[in-house]
Amino acid sequence: xxxxAPDRTELLTIDASVGKHLALAxxxxxxxxxxxxxxxYANAQFRLLLATEQIRVGESGDDGxxxxxxxxxxxxxxxxxxxxxxxDAILEPPHGAAAKWSCSIWPVxxxxxxxxxxxxxxxxxxxxxxVKERQRAIAQELLLGALRAQDAAGDAASAGDRARFLAQxxxxxxxxxxESSTRETMRHLTLPRPGAWCIVDVVESNSAIHRLAVIHPDxxxxxxxxxxxxxxxxxxxxxxxxxxxxxxxxxxxxxxDSGAALVRAAHGEANLRILREIGFGSLLTxxxxxxxxxxxxxxxxxxxxxxxxxxxEIGFAADLGARCAMALDNARLYHExxxxxxxxxxxxxAKGEFLGMISHELRTPLNAIGGFAELLEMGIEGPVxxxxxxxxxxxxxxxxxxxxxxxxxxxxxxIEGGGMAYHLGRVSLPQAFAxxxxxxxxxxEEKKLTLVTAPxxxxxxAWADADRVRQILLNLLMNAVxxxxxxxxxxxxxxxxxxxxxARVADTGPGIEPKRMQSIFEPxxxxxxxLIDRQGGVGLGLPISRDLARAxxxxxxxxxxxxxxxxxxxxxxxxxxxxxxAPTAGRAKATG
Length: 592
Hints:
Blueprint: H1 16-23, E1 28-33, E2 39-42, H2 44-51, E3 55-56, H3 63-68, E4 70-71, H4 73-82, E5 86-90, E6 101-109, E7 115-124, H5 125-174, H6 179-187, E8 197-203, E9 209-211, H7 222-231, H8 238-247, E10 252-255, H9 260-266, H10 269-278, E11 282-290, E12 293-301, H11 311-377, H12 386-417, E13 425-428, H13 429-446, E14 450-453, E15 461-464, H14 466-483, E16 489-497, E17 500-507, H15 541-551, E18 555-561, E19 565-573
Parallel strand pairs: 3-4, 14-16
Antiparallel strand pairs: 1-2, 1-7, 5-6, 6-7, 8-9, 8-12, 10-11, 11-12, 13-15, 16-17, 17-19, 18-19
Helix pairs in contact: 5-11, 6-11, 7-10, 11-12, 12-15, 13-14, 14-15
């Protein structure tokens, strides 16, 4: 007979706080005497199960009770005999009922290693299954999360690889603006898929399609790849291929079973036979489009047996094609610009040579005209009347004017050709102004112009060529005299600012329109147009002055206000204070 003692908690010494937690535990918990199966301690849940006769500890002679409850006795006896822990054993259910309770038993041994007490825990099977289900669900979510994280990491790694690949391709394409080098780089590009290769077709300026040399990653298949290069286009109607290529706007993927599309992508049956002999999985053709114009196409070829190109690979190929198209267009524009530059340089040289030659040719007859005019004026050929003397003076003046113009042209040709010599030294700008003003005083008086020297520093010394400085100032003052209306004022001034000295010529002329400020320094340009209002000269004074100044590491600039006049400024390097610091005089080359 099994004794039940739910009230004998004094038989087991349990810490008060531990006992409190055990009493409130959501599972049924008890301590049972091993030999007698007497209950030494039971928490509230365990006592409730006993009271409601859902479980019993030992066997009972009451058949009715035995039919209603599940017994712990077999498991308790097994734990005592074996001395082992029993975990989550299902209690034998009453006859015809489903298993409802799970039991775990921990034997507690004494000093002789004999099990004296049994710690018993009873749980609801449904609760256990619910917990296990939740655990399985959590484990499944964790697994799915890990897989998603793994996929995301793989996608990020792939995206990083593609970004690095595109960056390297961009660097390779930008290393040179030479068209042949750009094409050489393009034909080595392909997608980052093992065994993939590409075919590059370029539309030439005459609308013909040129296939670049084809490179296959397998050297044994390179002869077949070379056939693709040599035999394309294989169709007799080349204009149809050009039209089809120019109409392409989106990447196109074709596979072995694409039928007519495959023939079109391969550009004919002959090429298709070669492709099949080489072996391929699929073809991805990307147009090379820049500024709305198709420059060619790249056809990427995957190895035989590979899956078709993915959407990521198609987008990647489109990005790569866009970079190739831009690089190809830049190379073409650079080539065209270089051709135009060479043509312009050749034309400039021809112009300079022509101007130099014609100027020299004109100087000889002009010198002869001047010489004969002087002989006539001297009376060598007989007496000269006053009217004849006046006519001869006019001939001599026009002859000297033509020589001045020709000299300007020769100087311009020398400067452009870098043949002008410069002897650098200390040049006083106030003294240079005084020399030039004296030369033009007669012309200024004739137009009733007032020449004013603004007060300022007297020791303004430039490091330059004295003759070239006077030539520049003469040109600036001559322009001021030429364009200032009668009764106007011309003001000259000098100043030193840090390591630079400046000489300024300001007038009260009509001024220069802003849109013409840049053109006044271009050769053969005058502010007035037409034959009636055109001033004397060939429009070389300002270009020559600026080129001379720049050759001496200075510059000539202009400021103007329409209706109020203009101011031209010559800036030059300041001469060192000590003679020992002066640079050696030498020959400089003009830059324009």
